[in-house]
Structures are given as C-alpha cells and as structure tokens.
Amino acid sequence: MKLLLHACCGPCACYPSQLLADEGTDFTLLYYNPNIHPYKEFKRRLSALRELAEKQDYKLIIDKTYPLEDCVKGMLEEPTVRCAFCYRMRMRYVAKFAADHGFTAFSSTLLYSPYQKHELIKQVAEAAAAEFGVDFYYRDWRPYYQAGVDLSLELGLYRQPYCGCVFSERDRYMEWKKNGKDIKESSTCVIKPGTEDKILKAAGDDSSSGKTAYVRITKKIIQLQKQDSILYK
Hints:
Oligomer: single chain
Largest sheet: 7 strands, mixed
Order of helices and strands: EHEHEHHEHEHHHHEE
Helix content: 40-55%
Strand content: 5-15%
C-alpha cells in the first residue's frame, strides 16, 4: 500500500505516523487545511507539522492554498453541520490528489482526535474514495490519543487550543459562549527522491511557461503552488 495521509496538524499526526512507520507502511503526509483560521494559526499548525516531518524524517507535501472567503461561505451555507463542509472539502482534495499521483489509498489524522465527528469523517471520506476511484484506509486511532499527546509534548510541538475554524475559535474564547448564553452548535471539532518530476507534472508543473507548481524546502518536503479558490469542494 502506498498511503497518502492527510494531516490536520503536527500533534494529531504524531501517533498515526509513528505507528505506520513502525509497521513499515509507505506513507506521505499531506497538509491541506484552508479551514484553519486565522492565517497566523494556519501557519503555526503548518510549522508544527513541518517540525514533526523534519524530526522524524517523514515525507510531506504542503499545499498552502488559503481561500478564506470560500471557506467561510461554505461553512455558513452547509445545510447540516458546518464541520461537514470542512471534512468534505479536505477529503475530496486528498482523494483526488491520491488518485492523480499514484497513491493506492488515503486516510486522515482527523480520525485520531476524540474531539472530531468521527463517523461523519468516515462517511465523507468513503464518499470521496468512491468518487475518485481510490481506496480509503480507515483506522480508528482514538484509543491512542494520550500516547499521541505524550509524543507531541516530548517532541516539543505546538499544541493548538481549538479545532481550527473561525467559529470554533470564537466558541473557545468568547466569554458569552463560555458562560452558556448561546446553545447553538459548537464545533468539536513527501515525495520519494527521484519521483518528483512525474508527480509534480501531474500536479500542474509547467516548466515550458516558466511557472513552477512547487517550491522544494528540503530533500523530502515539497510545497505546492497556492490556488485562488477551494479545490474539489
């Protein structure tokens, strides 16, 4: 199995990635989280994931696409719970990326957190897998939550205090929310050396036009070109 593992942040990626590495699974981490607000928080979580990848020698692909307006609009217009938009947007992107770049399966570190809507993530990921013709690798990492916390503390990674979107940040910090005056829904919520040319050509690299679809950060970490809008929402 060649696995593309979507990573929402460094701490949540700690235990799943270590377990996969111990089991000898060929996996690559992918950071695509335009739902994280504000932008400073988005950068802090990306920095923590890069730190994890560098310390543990993991492959990591980074997409810094950040269409703020599209994300907020999507969450506001979601007919069920706003988390469904966040999950669907990311799982469709990861599934499409996996299918287009030779991965046989995809998964997400969102399945590690007991604070996420686990069954909804599973449902959305399965739908994305069927849509793009790639396997969804389901695994319930929640029983190892404390082990992951301990590992993230040992590695000195930044640990975020709220789920990610601007609404969960509000719900975490606003006094009138904490005092129980509002009872509306609250969120509980890289590539092997030598294979870059083939993968990045499929990702949209157009060297003939002088444009490049990525920036190499280290030998194992590649940053993709940012897009102007949400992909595969």
